[in-house]
Design a protein that fits this description.
The protein has 274 residues and is of the alpha+beta class. The chain contains 11 helices and 9 strands. The longest helix has 19 residues. It starts with a helix and ends in a 10-residue tail after the last helix.
Length: 274
């Protein structure tokens, strides 16, 4: 039993190292960081790859998080004990703004809703936690793209087309990149009826250090709220984002890392390359 426990802890240590890294991690770097013998590291990595917890880069020398580990991170957030606190913050925001607000995160090449509080208005879009929306035409999605490293963003956008959902959807890479520059400059992202006609959105990042680990957004019919009207709520949304960031941190008495490793792996990007 002791050997099995030790092996599990060694595997977890390797997963933590990959989860914290902003770039693919090499075998040499993992060996050095963990202090484990190279043959042991290689054997554990092979098992983690076989299990879908990690992926080996095409060149075969570096590792990134795999689909099973990403699913673990997603489920950790969707079912977190801190979800009640996040919901309370969103509830307060909706009471003040009078429009639907939600918390989102990046999940692969999509945005997933972690939590959402609907407005009392009868005219609204109902999207439940767990719902997914595209990256290139949603406020949260463009925000995550803007905070990615350039190479990661290029790989992601090159892997899939940019379908048109409305006449306002940005389907050209150059136009989208120009939009992302504006997002980085302003610190907020806007959906100008790009995903659904008649619906506008604004999203701001939930930061941990220099990482955009999630986003908080407001949605409203354009008949009730213009883009300028949404922008007027930017300071309040940023305040809520700071409060929400605290719900992603581990309790003070716990040792490092401050964020659950399963959550870290989803957010390997920041805007430092810009």
């Amino acid at each position: 039993m002791k050997d099995e426990s030790s092996a599990a802890l060694r595997a977890l240590t390797l997963l933590e190292q990959v989860a914290r890294s902003e770039t693919p991690v090499s075998l040499a770097a993992l060996t050095e960081a963990t202090g484990l013998p190279k043959p042991s590291v290689l054997r554990i990595l092979s098992r983690l790859v076989d299990a879908g917890m990690l992926l080996r880069e095409p060149a075969g020398k570096s590792y990134i998080s795999g689909p099973r580990l990403s699913a673990l991170a997603r489920d950790t957030l969707l079912n977190s004990p801190l979800r009640a606190e996040r919901h309370r913050i969103l509830d307060s925001l909706v009471d003040e703004i009078g429009e639907t607000c939600n918390c989102t995160m990046l999940d692969g090449d999509e945005v997933i809703y972690l939590d959402r509080v609907e407005t009392a208005w009868p005219l609204r879009v109902n999207l439940q936690p767990g719902s997914r929306v595209p990256l290139h035409c949603s406020a949260s999605g463009k925000l995550f793209l803007a905070h990615m490293r350039r190479e990661a963003r290029a790989r992601l956008l090159a892997a899939a087309p940019l379908p048109r959902y409305t006449p306002n959807t940005l389907c050209e890479a150059a136009a989208l990149e120009h939009e992302l520059q504006a997002i980085r400059k302003e610190g907020a992202s806007f959906d100008r009826e790009e995903f659904l006609l008649g619906i506008v959105c604004m999203a701001v990042p939930i930061m941990q250090g220099r990482r955009a680990i999630a986003a908080v957004a407001l949605h409203a019919p354009v008949a009730r709220l213009s883009i300028d009207g949404a922008r007027a709520w930017l300071p309040r949304m940023q305040e809520a984002a700071r409060a929400l960031a605290g719900t992603y941190e581990a309790p003070a008495q716990e040792a490092e890392p401050a964020m659950d490793p399963a959550i870290c792996l989803l957010y390997t990007s920041d805007a430092a390359d810009e």
